[in-house]
């Protein structure tokens, strides 16, 4: 599995290779490295030339008119629109999100916003990835998604805390937070765990209410399938 780290250094975007253990990331970084470097070099040379838009002419400049500074055409659209586009991209494919970030500074800025990380899909990242690389770019990417309120990332963080690291208190807090952020799967799992706490009637009642909400949504079967896949990874 591969992951991307993107940095902006004098308008050149560097792509690094980071392996995930025992899993396959949906794309390979190395095949893009040469292509991205060539594209960035071409873009850098082009940015050094004055931009001429339709309707302007060299003749006018020769007549003594003061040339108008034209900004990048991508900036003609509000940043809000690019953020919405990047959010849609992130919710479908991490690969496409990183390609978008690597394409230009405008896209890098829009695709690095909190709203985008809140909706990044976690489906392609195996649960084991949440246990490794505590101080590596992979981990920092996941942590940023959690901080942004990404329900899928918070759910997986809660799973690792509760079952693998055996920190039940923090695990339940994360699962409850994921439920509040809109994760049906987190609500289902939280309900099951609360119903197992036979010593606390108040918690059991809360579990019943959560399970009823999941049942009403009609997603009980999909939740069971989701956790079957998770624990069989």
Automatic annotation (TrEMBL):
InterPro entries, sorted: At1g67623-like, At2g35280_TPR_dom, F-box-like_dom_sf
Any one Pfam family match given in the protein's UniProt record, by short name: TPR_27
Residue span of region Disordered: 38-65
Compositionally biased region (Basic and acidic residues): 38-47
Chain segments annotated as transmembrane: none
Any coiled-coil regions, as ranges: none
Domain At2g35280-like TPR: 133-232
PANTHER family xref list: F-BOX PROTEIN, OS05G0482100 PROTEIN
Protein name in UniProt: At2g35280-like TPR domain-containing protein
Organism, as annotated: Arachis hypogaea
